[in-house]
Structures are given as C-alpha cells and as structure tokens.
Amino acid sequence: MTEHSPIPEFNPQGPQLVYVAVADHIAARIAAGELVAGARLPAERDLATEYGVAYLTVRRAAGVLRERGLILTVHGKGTFVADPLPAEVDPHRA
Fold this sequence. Notes:
Blueprint: H1 18-31, H2 44-51, H3 55-67, E1 71-74, E2 78-81
Antiparallel strand pairs: 1-2
C-alpha cells in the first residue's frame, strides 16, 4: 500500500485465491472512490490484461463483486459500479 492511496497493491501471489484477490482489489478501488457509482468498468478482457490474469479469473471475480452488490452487468451494455452502492463498502466482505 502506498502512502498516497488507500488502495492496497494487487498481489496475486498472496494467500488468497487469485479471483478473490482481483475482486478485493476492485472493491478497494470502489471504496476509495477511484471507481464511482454508475461508472462503467473496463471490459473483462481489458481488466485481465491490467491485472495480468486470465480472462476467466476476471469473470469469476466479477461474479463475487455482483454477489457483494458492488457491480451489475447489463447484457449488451457492460458492467457498472452499482448505483447506489451498498451502505458500507467493505472489500473483504463475503
């Protein structure tokens, strides 16, 4: 974690499953306000490239984020940060 950002470094080598680490990192970006309510997320393939993980890892992470109520996917339009966000955005929830 840097002193300028509340968002922890992404560490795919940590003890977590990689898809959970991706989900937690995106959740932290939402909690920090880097990704605001209503904002469209990059395409899953672009996120896979950004995080250096497989496309299916990002798909699985998106499923976790949907379960947490942090994002929603509109078929044919994309994936968006939930608006409104849950009352308390906790990147380590569920």
